[in-house]
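Practice problem: predict the structure.
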Amino acid sequence: MRALLQRVSPAPVPADGQVVGRIDPAALGIPHGLVALVGVTHSDTEATAKALADKVWRLRILDSERSAADLNAPILVVSQFTLYADTRKGRRPSWSAAAPGAIAEPLVDVFAHALRELGATVATGRFGAHMRIDLVNDGPVTLMLEL
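Answer:
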């Protein structure tokens, strides 16, 4: 399982003409939140999803080396199968390492649920939808996490 993690200011996610998820850290009195673009591969399990959620929640990438847990920073979770693109050959990416939707969707849900159980305020995109994530990467801070 992979997560591309970005430190952001407000981030709404429109899909199909409506906003399906949104975080607004300033409304909570903090400067940043996180966007976690989450990719799932065939060997991932619920345990993997829970461990990655814990890593995201406790990773110290916000102001003054604090974590989302320290600040109760909101997290936007969006499924992103393209994180498992294989571009080593040719000009067309292969998606064979990405888990199919029937496997990936429940594990992305487990990831988001695990964050909520840890105390996070979590918003989500819509699995499989064409989305436009409106975000400002603050810093910029972008990290790839993999378990």
